[in-house]
Fold each of these.
Amino acid sequence: MSRVAELIERKRDGGELTASEIDELILADVPDYQLAAFCMAVFFRGLSSEETFALTDAMVRSGETLDLGAALGRRVVDKHSTGGVGDKISLALGPVVAACGVPFGKMSGRGLGHTGGTLDKLEAIPGFRVELTTDAFVAQVREIGLAIVGQTADLVPADKKLYALRDVTATVDQVSLIAASIMSKKIAAGANAIVLDVKVGDGAFMKTLEDAQVLANTMIALGERAGRKVVCEITDMDQPLGRAVGNALEVREVLQTLRGEGPPDVAELVLGAAAHLLALSDLGLDRDEGRRRAEGAIADGSAYAAYERWIRAQGGDPDEAALPKASFVREVFAPRGGYVRRLAALPIGNAALDLGAGRREKDDPIDHAVGIVCVKKRGDEVGGGEALAEIHARDETSADALAEAVVAAYEIVDAPPPAHPLVLDVIGA
Ligand code: URA
């Protein structure tokens, strides 16, 4: 039996691998079929905390790393979400944090499946370039205080390979593999302090609070071992975040948020994450003062101005009127009056995907204009026949095809439902 097969067999049978054995799997040129088998063995057997750290560390060493903090002589902050529906927080958070004088440098990913990706949302902005060289990325964070770019090919190449294999072998949703994937990229990209938003609910990888807490604790431990300060917020993904789902629609909602007119859940997550990031920065503030400054940056327009500077620096047109618009908008209506008890995130994410807002396969093209606006959300009162949502589509046929699915995502009951917390837990603060 080959050496790699022996290592897979050990994991398959519940044994433990050493750090140098994990290096052999991740850093050598192991064929895809063996790496896929290894992922499946990990899926069933899990990894110990030592193995998870060794995997993360090997993944970091698979490519280039960046020391952004040292390059700028400042403590640099970053934020990452485990992914959800309507999650546009980073696009508003970056300008808020930069307006408060803290450098924000982030490498983001694209959406896959029903979850959206920050890069796709940014590419809804005409002219915006997500690909910058590492030098240009560092220079922009130095000069503008803010850059969000695609991950360069040289950063954690092992994750690109592993993630692509996991995606087609039903091995994405395993805590150690998710934690190593996310934290290897955060560590390699060089921020000193990271706020992680672990989503929980039907639209997220983690379906229960307990699983989300395990993932959060795993990522905090990985960050701390790499000398990074990490705070995890566990937040609700049982309904879409904000009202807009779909790239240009979400950018519009970001602009509303930066003007202080955004949906309350988006505003709250932006201010909460900004408070954590400012408290972790080199400004020497506590969280309350961080939140006050973040609120001030929205109120005095400096966060909006930071957004405009940032978008222009990456070649984009920050004018809201420049964003693409779908040619057809269809409303869907409540079949009865009452209160929205449930607005399921997954079917709304899938409907947006079917409209063309996301991609089922890695290289599918995206229509940046299309998506869903959830006019009513959980807890809202609705009259029979009142609009629940808008479908922004390429044409009438594609909007009609999804109308039923969008209405079915809503559950309407007679009495107001109990309040559902937006932030379920904060770990590592
Ligand atoms: N996001 C990542 O970057 N990796 C995962 O494995 C899951 C979500």
Note: The two ends are 48 Å apart (CA to CA).
Amino acid sequence: MTDTQQSPTAAGSGASATESFLTGEMYQAARQVPPERVDAVVRAVLDGVHTAIREHKVTYPEFQAAKAWLIQVGEGGEWPLFLDVFVEHVVEEVQAETQQGTKGTILGPYYLPGQKRLTSPATLPMRGDEKGTPLVFAGQVRDHDGNPIPGAEIDIWQADADGYYSGFAPHLPEGNLRALVVADDEGRFEIRTVQPAPYQIPTDGPTGKLIEAAGWHPWRPAHLHLIVSAPGHRAITTQLYFRGGEWLDSDVASAVKPELILDPEDQGDGTRRVRYDFELERDEGARAA
Ligand code: DHB
Ligand code: FE
């Protein structure tokens, strides 16, 4: 038990991520998929699997190993982790084909809605002795024509300086390093936080075992997660990374884009500061705000 308190397990994070996904609005909001679409997409997925089996002359022992692994991913609650690392980036790539403005990237499994609402300038909820380099993250939210968007909302969440997310690691206080920050009348925001550490996929679960068996590495570069939104505009889900950080060129989740790399400046007092502006696309389907 003490061990669980100190370092989160794959099973712990997996179960929390599965529970959070199944009860979350992203899944609840998914519309019914028509049968023609299920037929076309599932058939294509199966065709891909069949092709891999033929090309690689997959044997019975390998097939049974795969079956056991799939069962374990489900039992360990790791489907959200696995799919968001190895599949979501392509879904995002397809969505990005129709979205203008700030680049998006994957949501990942650790978003929790309903966090504390703070007005800018804001300090993210954190422990009194929160580790990590203090970071001031400031900017402005504008529309495509450069007009500021007053009261835009920045839903922000991140790992701590040890690479763990609150809500998914039992030793962290609820809501730690998560908030919904409301920008000022000129769409400006300033958020005080600490720099996150790179994130490692839990190595003790089936996803970790697969990564090890394949000789890959389990790391994501350090990142901030954001959903920036405003009435009448299309929300953008994205992440921001840090120039010079480890794993930028080999993110296990393939979610880094060059436009999303921050370049914080040392302020000479141990603090780093960076500015990043967001551009939201007008949502033509939405009523005017
Ligand atoms: C995963 C974790 C993350 O922090 C993230 O941003 C994306 C994916 C994962 O473990 O699946
Ligand atoms: Fe993340």
Note: The chain is about 30% helix and 25% strand.
